[in-house]
Amino acid sequence: MEPGLRLLIQLVLEFAPVIVDLIQKRKEESLTTTNYLLPTVVNEAVRFGKNMMAENDSYDSSFEQTKLLQQQLAVYQRETQLKVANQERETALKLPEVYKIFDSWPLRLYPSQILESHTNQGRTPIKVFLAPPEIKFDQFEHKTDGISEIELMLAEGLRKLFNQHYSLHNPIRPTEFLAGAWDSKRFHSESSIKALYGILKTEPILILESENDGDYLNFRIAYWGLKQDKYYYKTIARLSYKEILQESAKSRALEWKKIRDELLALGENLEEINLLGRDNVFNLAILEKSEKWQAQGIDVSKLSLQYQVNHQDFEKLCQVLITCHFLVAAWVADIYHLVHYDVPPLLPKLLPSLLKDAFDLQSVQAIATGYKQVYQALEEERRYWVPELALQLAQSLSHLPDRSWAQEQIDYSISTWLELRQALSQEFANPLEAMQSAVRIEDEEYFQNLKEYFTTVSDRQNILAVEKLLDAIATLKYKLTLENANLRYTLTGHAGKVTSVAVSPDGEILVSGCADKTINLWNLRTGKLIRTLTENLGEVSSLAISPDGNFLAIGSCEHPRSNVKVLHLKTGKVLHTLLGHQKPVNVVAISPDGTILASGSNKIKIWNLDKGDRICTLWHSSAVHAVAISLDGTILASGSSDNKIRLWNPRTGDPLSTLNGHDGEVNSIAMSPDAQLLFSGSADTTIRVWHLATGKLLHTLTGHSQTVKSLAVTPDGQTLISGSADKTIKIWRLSTGELLQTLTGHSETVNSLALSPDGKLLASGSTDRTIKIWQI
Prior knowledge:
The protein has 776 residues and is of the alpha+beta class.
């Protein structure tokens, strides 16, 4: 096996478990840190995401947000490490023992020169130092002039490779190779490494050290990454440089033999030919003797066979050492940039050209296993990024001769993608076909990379399957373009489903209530968050704002603490807490004249808004989901889970009439501005339009495929807007019942709608934890 490959395999076997331990330790530290808030927030989000996986109603949004938060945590950890490193860097040179450390300082550079911070697009480069061997070539019988300056040849060869693949200015894998910095005539071993770490622990550093030991080179590496509390230093291989030189001499002799035989065949004189052969003649004679003796059963390894070496052999040795050093440095640099910056490995792509035909099954297995161990450690802390991580590794391993390791990662990537999105693959012959049911626009980059992989391995069948997925994404993007013609912006900030939205009478403030027990106040025109209210609210089910904009009524569905609170909208101060409901409060509504407040659970209670005292109770036999009050305050309409709509006098509590017609529970109620029409939305997926005074059914609007959760009427009374559990918002022309437009920006149930006073802006709150503002 080629020395460079043997060295790389040994490094992988030794070093990969070390990196895995470092990743695990980093994860444990991030989970136990009390100084930083973000890791706690992310862990809570991960927990929430796992809970939501069991609830299809909220799964998509929780998946995307948890995935995003995991990425934010990784970025946060890097930023924290850099901040700490910068602080330590500033104090490193002020240590009182710094001058004593210089007694063992192995570099020609001062610490201040090394500690100068170099960043490339926010990434701290890993610094690579070369501690080259001092080989004494005078022990060989055939001496050469000037060949002992192996350090110069080694540095030049490595410089070329680093500049080509891992340069300091590389925006992806910045690596600073500092050739000539090591004072190789003075220092090697532990004391020098310890002295370096004492001053340079803030800098990610790799030291490639090879030391002469007779006919052998002891190859060691020292490494520490960002914010690493101890360094790694170990001998990873022992190379016989004498064997490399003599193998080169033997190869030259065999090449010479071919040329000699060709010249003899042309009739040239043997003595004259041998004069041209020089040391090749001597080496060929030894080689032929050794082969003859070996054929007679003699163990030639016990003989001291001295081949004559020349500059070609020393150049071969240097090339082998260059390859050895670069393979090790590239693998460590890959791992450093992977662990700290999520950059996929480059080395597997370079290996075929660096090692030519030296690969075998054992070497591929060892290299692939090393990368896999590191990726698996990263996957533990970034579960939602497993498909991307596994695909990255597959792309890197696809350049190796044995493709089975890359295919294993592709299978793992796809199966995890399906698992995380709860897409069943058993019914399909090809797992890629199962992805059709769960594909989203956000997956475009993943599928582009998947197509690139299948193109690399010439898998035509799967290329076509991925192209179908990309076509599906193109269709989704086209639909989104149509939606965005109406969508102004999306508000995020809630950690649970948004249950209710309301707009202030001046059109300036949007209020959103959430199952996460918070209320957010937003600037409706800009989308800027003004304030978050968390005053012991419970799970918010419904909101209503008084016509003068002073009062905010909040209904809580968190039984047994179900209650209604009345707050001052501008200050958030609690004015009244209204008790009396024995069941969850599902809805609150304020009369257009601003005098009364209605709250519905299994009963409807009518309150004096100013004073907070109860006026009367309207008796329902089942849960009330929706309430609306007429402009003059004389009629209250309520919809309930018994499929009925009831009309009441809210001042006296007297029932007026009951409207029947829905085949499912009534979830939403609205009235036209002139109080002539009543609108009801139901679990039967229909919207019914009633004449309020007579109770006559005028129209039935169909088009939603699931429960109609919310209704809103434009101020001119010409247009009705409906939000549904089918994730859509529909806009209807009331005069004809015609469906004008469908808005499909939400990924989950649309729970609540609210219009601005001028009817130009629509706010929608959804189970997907977002609020969208639409231009109507």
